[in-house]
Amino acid sequence: MPRSVLAVDIGGTKFAAALVGPEGDVRAAERAATPPGGDAETLWKALDALITAVAGDTPVDGVGIGCGGPMTWPEGAVSPLNMPGWRAFPLRGRLAARFPGVPVRIHNDAVCVAAAEHWRGAGRGSANMLGMVVSTGVGGGLILGDRLIDGGSGNAGHIGHVVVDPDGPACECGGRGCLEAVARGPGLAAWALEQGWIPGRASGASESGTAGPAYVEATAASGRRLALDAAAGDAVALAAMERAGRAVGLAVASATHLCDLDVVTIGGGLSQAGRLLFDPLEETLRAHVRLDFARRVRVVPASLGQDAGLVGAAALVLAADRYWSPRR
Amino acid sequence: MPRSVLAVDIGGTKFAAALVGPEGDVRAAERAATPPGGDAETLWKALDALITAVAGDTPVDGVGIGCGGPMTWPEGAVSPLNMPGWRAFPLRGRLAARFPGVPVRIHNDAVCVAAAEHWRGAGRGSANMLGMVVSTGVGGGLILGDRLIDGGSGNAGHIGHVVVDPDGPACECGGRGCLEAVARGPGLAAWALEQGWIPGRASGASESGTAGPAYVEATAASGRRLALDAAAGDAVALAAMERAGRAVGLAVASATHLCDLDVVTIGGGLSQAGRLLFDPLEETLRAHVRLDFARRVRVVPASLGQDAGLVGAAALVLAADRYWSPRR
Questions:
Q1: Pairing, β A129-134 against β A5-10
Q2: Contact (CB<8Å) B149/A259
Q3: CB within 8 A of A310, min separation 6: which ones?
Q4: A216 pLDDT band (50/70/90 cuts)?
Q5: Half-sphere exposure (CA, 13 Å, Cβ side) for A24?
Q6: Could you give phi then psi for residue A240, rounded to 5 degrees?
Q7: Looking at the predicted structure, is the pLDDT value of residue B268 above 50?
Q8: Is the same domain home to A280 and A151?
Q9: Which 144-163 residues of chain B touch chain A by CB within 8 A?
């Protein structure tokens, strides 16, 4: 009988859950806003209700969880940066108690996205891949030799903290000049505001209040707004996309040399800017990868969209030979 | 019966060969200067004679080879940058023909050093390690999840081409601001000369001609000379060591974040500078690794010295479960 697992994707703005079939097919997905300011049990109850809506009494062969870091791993006590209600919350343990007798596995949300893109998305068929998410933060996951790389503490793939500008902006991690400090949506928007950007002006949003997809607040200084304004020709927004693209290109060049990559997939809100981001990225990357082996690297848009986190969480169970190997 | 393998280490200045026992014990090592300007067959004959001197008629259970890159891998047609006589020379094939019936395996020389430090040296007991060589070039090898990482073409570990200064000096790879461009011995010496360094002056070598170990030409503008002059208090030489240490620290910070490393081992001529290199390295590294998981990384001097290349080449055969996994 085909197996089906429960996949859970925990983010600061929304929870998602779904049943996922053996080929990575997402069924019965449900999403709910993360209760803002919720304490630990409020958050857990909201998740519990979402899971009940999705799984009901359906027996599942396992549970895969993607969650924002940091966390203890593979134990799965989570302290997501943008969910102050959960600090060392035993998320994996709670779900293991709710689903006894089946494997319950957890990994960083960006790692799950990378696993998904490798398993069923734009990195399929490549044995050596970096999967990136460029959004409110910059995260990633690393697949080498056709296996998900965990690193010593489950934190491999932190491409967002590769240093791209040693004298660059301070990073929330406490360091300086990290890719994330330069290219995360809010950082980029702050930089653009300093340069005189007026959110929504170029695309007429400040007059009509409607330009762009419904989920982009018309005049909010967000990375998505910046991407839309760049598409509408705003000079500062375009410069911001170039700034982000160059920074990503540098980090990808370094990762390619260190890990001998075949493919890099890029998803997340900022990747919606398309060529406005990818063109400067490619230009910088190609200027820095000149050795024969490194030139072969390809950078492609991620292909799974908002389902990626769920598909990757499911892969921890459904394709464990490649995506699950904690040493205990 | 304990196994013994023939290990071969091919460099631009010397060839080395030895029998290596099952615990990585080096026996009967022989070294010979690389014939300067030799054509392909001259180089091969010199190597063949060295192997005969070491192995004679002793049966061996395999052959491990470390050689400067680039090369096709795992086929082992080599084109070492500093040995123009070998271009696509079928080194592994020649040795396989000379030693029929046993495994004959090859890897990049810096990768072999990393494998050696992990197997028998300063990285022993760590599952996630970067082994670096900072010398005429800057190379390395990557061990993750207790396995040597090859990457898509056998080139994983190229830490020397992590970008540490996007607007920095041109690199011989064709890129710009690579760690190697900043920190390789000749690059560092050139920088020091520009700053007014007079090789050997600080240590009295230009008068006596004898300061420093015999293998360091008294007044040559080399990385080793620079290290000695820094130890003798030469201000420019000290600044050069700081420059190198900071660059290495940045690259190690990036690698630590991307690969979630436990340990980094550093060998090669420049590492002889000891604290003059390691202190600025640590200072820069600690300023950039602030996330909890990354702070645990330790940077330690390599411990196997000139035998490392031989021990690592032998490990390709003697500890193949960890150090040999080409997918064919």
A1: unpaired
A2: yes
A3: A7, A8, A9, A16, A17, A18, A20, A26, A29, A66, A116
A4: low
A5: 21
A6: -65, -40
A7: yes
A8: yes
A9: 144-147, 149-163
